[in-house]
Design a protein that fits this description.
single chain, two-stranded antiparallel ribbon, 2 strands
Length: 307
């Protein structure tokens, strides 16, 4: 395992994960993988178990904090929550008015991370099957048509559980699944207005889904590390369909708040040479950023991959 990352770096990782999770089509799990903290994150969340509760019951605060890597988890969550609160407005503005630029940058991040992460995958027959399964699974998710669902606490609760499981997976966007479930705009408005009637059941659902799913994912990484990484690479590759910057809308509707919700879209060539040049520049910047971060981590003692 790599040495523990510094506090400022963990805060920056949280900021990056929060910014990514706000955008439908981009995964905070992808950012954790890109930034080299994915394994440590899974280990920290998996520490919330019966042993942790027993340590708390005995008053063994130091051991309990060490079990869940509290010195890592607190700044990460602080950065993530702070990023969501601070960036939800500019990110949603970019998503609404400058989607090409936003998605071009994230497209480059994902492409660069696929190349780097793929080096840690198993590329035998089982790995190739896992990667193909990941691509197919991601495509099935990102091509779903949004549905209309109620906003009662129970629906919000299980929507949060489903979304957080996607957010922890590199390449699968929890925000997009909220969009598919008809909850994205509702939850976003709740964050902006601090509407705790929505935020509390959503947070409880996130906690439930996270605690259950992380254990499964960590077990897979421990038992079939190379194949699981190949599966995650497949998820990331499949998600590129959704964040390709140049798309044409085939069908859309206006929701109750007057916002346009895209029901069906398709890949399309750039509409102008200037738009293509800017998009390629931002893609290149995303790839360069990932490569630079990987080099910095290598100098600091190596990148952490897996649990």
């Amino acid at each position: 395992m790599a040495r523990a990352p510094s506090l400022p770096y963990v805060l920056l990782c949280g900021l990056a994960m929060g910014a990514a999770d706000v955008v439908p089509g981009v995964s905070g799990g992808s950012m954790a993988f890109i930034l080299g903290i994915y394994g440590r994150l899974l280990e920290a969340v998996a520490g919330f178990d019966l042993t942790f509760l027993a340590l708390l019951g005995r008053g063994a605060w130091r051991q309990a904090a060490a079990r869940v890597h509290l010195g890592f988890l607190l700044p990460l969550l602080s950065g993530l929550l702070g990023s969501v609160l601070l960036l939800v407005r500019p990110i949603t503005w970019l998503y609404a008015d400058h989607r090409v630029l936003l998605f071009a940058f994230f497209f480059g991040l994902i492409v660069g991370s696929i190349v780097l992460i793929a080096r840690h995958a198993h590329w035998g027959v089982s790995g190739l099957i896992a990667m193909a399964s990941g691509v197919l699974g991601a495509l099935l998710l990102v091509t779903r048509v949004p549905v209309t669902m109620p906003h009662d606490p129970l629906t919000i609760y299980w929507s949060g559980a489903v979304a957080i499981m996607a957010m922890i997976l590199p390449g699968v966007s929890g925000s997009f699944l909220l969009l598919v479930l008809g909850q994205y705009q509702h939850v976003l408005e709740a964050v902006k207005g601090l509407q705790f009637g929505t935020l509390v059941p959503f947070a409880l659902g996130c906690i439930t889904g996270l605690l259950l799913f992380v254990r499964l994912l960590r077990w897979l990484l421990q038992r079939w590390h190379g194949q699981t990484v190949a599966l995650l690479v497949g998820f990331m590759a499949g998600s590129l369909w959704k964040i390709w910057p140049f798309r044409v809308v085939l069908e859309s509707v206006i929701n109750a708040r007057g916002a346009v919700v895209v029901l069906r879209d398709a890949l399309a060539p750039p509409t102008s040479g200037g738009a293509l040049a800017v998009a390629l520049l931002l893609m290149g910047l995303g790839v360069a950023l990932v490569t630079g971060l990987e080099q910095l981590q290598a100098r600091a003692g190596g990148q952490e991959m897996g649990a």
